[in-house]
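for the recovery benchmark. tokens below, seq after
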């Protein structure tokens, strides 16, 4: 069982179900919706073709999550 945690934006308690699904979250569902999501996700294709080749072979994708700045609920 996860320990209850206050929302970094509004101060309300984050539901245990959300903390189990997203252990790294810092905001509640309502604040996440208001912010347009807690993270910005960047996806970059990985090239597996030889250096200098004009053929672009992509083997997979690399993802990177960057946390959006969290401002207090009243300060928007």
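predicted aa per position
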């Amino acid at each position: 069982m996860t320990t209850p945690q206050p929302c970094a934006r509004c101060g309300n308690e984050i539901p245990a179900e959300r903390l189990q699904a997203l252990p790294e979250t810092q905001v509640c569902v309502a604040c996440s919706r208001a912010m347009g999501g807690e993270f910005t996700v960047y996806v970059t294709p990985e090239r597996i073709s030889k250096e200098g080749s004009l053929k672009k072979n992509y083997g997979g994708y690399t993802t990177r999550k960057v946390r959006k700045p969290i401002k207090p609920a009243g300060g928007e």
